[in-house]
Structure formats: structure tokens, C-alpha cells
Amino acid sequence: LAQSQIISEDDRMAEVMADGTVYTTNPSVYDTWCTLNLNNFPFDSQQCTINIGSWVYTANETTITTQQTEITVDDLPQVYQGNSEWEVTKIKGEIKSSIDDGDHFQEVWFTVSLRRRASYYVFVLLVPTFIVTTLCIIGLFTPLDNYGDRSERV
């Protein structure tokens, strides 16, 4: 997991409410990886799970929330920048709790559902392979010359 800050720590603001609640944000770009199942390549779909949580502050000290439990890309067209290889179908957020050394911690588990755009692989990989294979099979069984018996090519 790699993180790059969008706003430096010195320039971030915190919002303090009248009841003492403090809201702060950490706008960042996170790079992560997930295991892919390539059995149906290039017509595959993948699900990647990303866990974000604080292992410094317990659930009694912080509250982690999500604004929505399930987001489709159609809901946020101005935020999501497309990708030529993958189509994001939905993003699901879920709050989970865990216990470590008797302390309760909260995490947000995001499940990102992806579908591969197969058109590139069909036109660059599958169609040329099919054409070359067909030509090889036809060439194997065509006569060597137009006159006389067919001779073997093997």
C-alpha cells in the first residue's frame, strides 16, 4: 500500500463542533493491490477488498463512518476517471469491528467490483489467433499443386 498526500499536514484544517466533536480529513491517494483470478481471462470480473482503519485509537476514542453503504459509478460520474482496461461496477463500504489485546477497533472495508473491458483482447489477441490457426489448418490440407495427386506436407 502506497500513500501520497494531496494536502500537506500543515495546510489541513479541522472542524470543531459546538458539542466538542472534531472532524478532520486526510485527503490522499492510495495505491493498493489485490489477487486476481484469471480463469476467465479476458472476460473476467474481480473483487478487491481494501481495509482502512486506525490501530492507534480504539473504537471508544474514534468513530469511523461511511456516507453510503453501496456506490455505483453512475452515481458519481464527475468523480470517477475511467480506465481503459477496467470498468468499476460498484463500491461497497462496510464497518467492521475487531479486538486486539482486549481493545476494540473499527475498520472500513471497501469492496471494489471490477469488470475487464474485453474488446481490446478480443481484437488484438483472440481474432488474430483464430485467423492464423484457421489459415494453418486450411494450408495443411490443401493440395501442393493443382495437377496430380495430393502430397503430404508433414
TrEMBL record:
<dbReference type="InterPro" id="IPR006202">
    <property type="entry name" value="Neur_chan_lig-bd"/>
</dbReference>
<dbReference type="InterPro" id="IPR036734">
    <property type="entry name" value="Neur_chan_lig-bd_sf"/>
</dbReference>
<protein>
    <recommendedName>
        <fullName>Neurotransmitter-gated ion-channel ligand-binding domain-containing protein</fullName>
    </recommendedName>
</protein>
<keyword id="KW-0812">Transmembrane</keyword>
<feature type="domain" description="Neurotransmitter-gated ion-channel ligand-binding">
    <location>
        <begin position="7"/>
        <end position="117"/>
    </location>
</feature>
<dbReference type="GO" id="GO:0004888">
    <property type="term" value="F:transmembrane signaling receptor activity"/>
</dbReference>
<keyword id="KW-0472">Membrane</keyword>
<dbReference type="Pfam" id="PF02931">
    <property type="entry name" value="Neur_chan_LBD"/>
</dbReference>
<dbReference type="InterPro" id="IPR018000">
    <property type="entry name" value="Neurotransmitter_ion_chnl_CS"/>
</dbReference>
<dbReference type="InterPro" id="IPR006201">
    <property type="entry name" value="Neur_channel"/>
</dbReference>
<dbReference type="GO" id="GO:0005230">
    <property type="term" value="F:extracellular ligand-gated monoatomic ion channel activity"/>
</dbReference>
<dbReference type="InterPro" id="IPR036719">
    <property type="entry name" value="Neuro-gated_channel_TM_sf"/>
</dbReference>
<keyword id="KW-1133">Transmembrane helix</keyword>
<feature type="transmembrane region" description="Helical">
    <location>
        <begin position="120"/>
        <end position="141"/>
    </location>
</feature>
<dbReference type="GO" id="GO:0016020">
    <property type="term" value="C:membrane"/>
</dbReference>
